[in-house]
Amino acid sequence: MTTTPLTTAASGPPASPYVTGLFAPVLDEVDAEDLVIHGELPEAIRGSYYRNGANTPYTPPTPWTYPIDGDGMVHEMAISEGRAHYRNRFVRTPMIEAELAAKKALWATMMGGAMPLGEVPEELKFTPKDLPDVNIVRHDGRLLALAETTRSYCLDPTTLATLGPETWDGAYPMGHTAHPKIDPVTGEMILFAYTFAEPYLTWAVIGADGSVVQPPTGVAGFDATYMIHDCAITERYLLLLVNPAVFTLDEMMKGGSPLQWQPERGSRTVLVPRDGSAPIWLDADRVSWCWHIANAYDSADEVVVDWVRWDHLQVVDQVAENLGALVRTTLRPSAGTTSTEVLHEGLMEFPRIDDRRIGQHHSRIAMGAKSGRPGLIPGEFDSVLTIRPDTGEAAVFDGGDLVVGEPCFVPDPAAEGWFVTFGTDRTTLRSSFIVLSAEDVSAGPIARVDLPVRVPNGLHGAWAPTAG
Ligand SMILES: [Fe+2]
Q: What is the pLDDT of residues 338-374, one digit of tens each?
């Protein structure tokens, strides 16, 4: 194992549970080969599992907001011929490079305005901090670390070295969603960005070859800057759940949070036809919040979308009264109606499907879920739950003391495939990479790889098969 020590974290009181405990950053960049494997890694698993997450080395000077704040660190589990290798690297934005050089935090957090608060290099004096810690996506051979609203960064898929910002030929110089969707049929990547001036939201299409097929185009009907974290696509539409979390500069000028929950605005869905015709707005039957959509698809004249519903925008001090559920909403654009049914009650997040089914009918959804065991904070899950929406069949892998991350699907040419994720034992603080059979996660891991270092709880991951 080779370790490149960085530096030590600045002392000071922890600002948030999301920079301590299982979320505490790691400071070293590590390469470790031929790790200890329990069970057997299937020969058909050949490729890399990449996972991004917040890893801020210095106590931030302003309040922290989970899950949208944080410097990115990407962790890779590379698997070939039944052997497993691990690597992690910071996403080296100019801002984190400046902070590492200064050995202290220099920028405010997102809700603090994300602007420099200390002495920074001249060229960054008026530059908000890039926070590409939310997601990681492969497209056109590029490995992209993605942020909630700031710029994406390209990484070398082999070394995880940061190559620089990705603006798509200048189409999105200030950034875009962390959750673009790649259409497995057309190979196109569809993305959106909310903006702080009219038209408040744009969407664009990046071709399979990385070219800009459709430049950013406004979606008519937005009357404010709504925070929208995720999206879905179908063959016909880009689908956005528009819930009443609104950025208001007035509140920020008064010293409040720029992000306000305004339930009087209601919840709506906008279907943006991919053929360029006028968007279709539909009112929801109740106010709610959504971080993540599992998938959507067209079904005759209807559109079906499966998503994780929360009562309201989940922030730490409100979670006790926040109820979650995996729900299915059926949208009828011609009738202008919607209806929603609960597929599974409980606290869960990070829904993923077989990515080869994005935009089409899907048969299984996997999520991180809470078993009810005490001591977990919001964003920590001790189970992997799978649901088959068509039958209601559920399966659970209860990790016990293992706190698990988002399950990511790995296809098997001979069967359905596997869900993989990182987990960390709450008692020993030892991390591992686990492989679950997609057909029955309740059987427990078929393989577990011991990791040489702790992998902090993080956010989203991606599976990239080895070419050929
Ligand atoms: Fe997300």
A: 999 999 999 999 999 999 999 999 999 999 999 999 9
Within 10 angstroms of residue 415's Cβ, the number of other Cβ atoms is 12
Centre of ligand 1 from the C-alpha of residue 186, in Å: 23
Question: Is 41 domain-assigned?
Answer: no
Domain count, the chain: 1
pLDDT of residue 253: 72
- pLDDT at residue 249 greater than cutoff 90: no
Question: Going by C-beta distance under 8 Å and a sequence separation of 6 or more, which residues neighbour residue 193?
Answer: 149, 172, 174, 175, 176, 177, 201, 202, 203, 216
Q: Which two tokens stand for residue 41?
A: 């890694």
Centre of ligand 1 from the C-alpha of residue 313, in Å? 13
How many angstroms is it from 230 CA to the middle of ligand 1?
7
The pLDDT value given to residue 5: 47
The reply to whether 22 falls in a domain is no
- pLDDT tens, position by position, 196-221: 899 999 999 999 999 999 999 999 99
CA 459 to ligand 1 centroid distance, Å? 7
CATH code for the domain of 395: 2.130.10.10
**Is residue 10, in this structure, part of any structural domain at all?**
no
SS3 217: strand
Spacing, Cα 147 to ligand 1 middle (Å): 9
- Rounded to the nearest angstrom, the distance between the alpha carbon of 291 and the centre of ligand 1 is 6
Distance of CA 422 to the CA centre of its chain: 14
Distance 176 CA to ligand 1 centre (A): 13
Strands 337-345 and 302-310: unpaired
Report how far ligand 1's centroid is from the alpha carbon of 289 (Å). Answer: 13
Expressed in angstroms and rounded, the spacing between residue 350 Cα and the centre of ligand 1 is 7
User: CA angle, corner 165, sides to 163 and 169, nearest 5?
Assistant: 115
Q: How far is the CA of 349 from the centre of ligand 1 (A)?
A: 9
d(CA 123, ligand 1 centre) in Å: 30
Distance 43 CA to ligand 1 centre (A): 30
Residue-averaged pLDDT of the chain: 92
Contact assessment for residue 101 and residue 93, using Cβ atoms and an 8 Å cutoff: no
CA of 370 to the centre of ligand 1 (A): 18
Q: How far is the CA of 45 from the centre of ligand 1 (A)?
A: 25
Structural domain boundaries, residue 171 = 131-465
Is residue 264 in some structural domain?
yes
Buried b (16+ CB within 10 A) or exposed e, 395-405: bebbbeebbbb
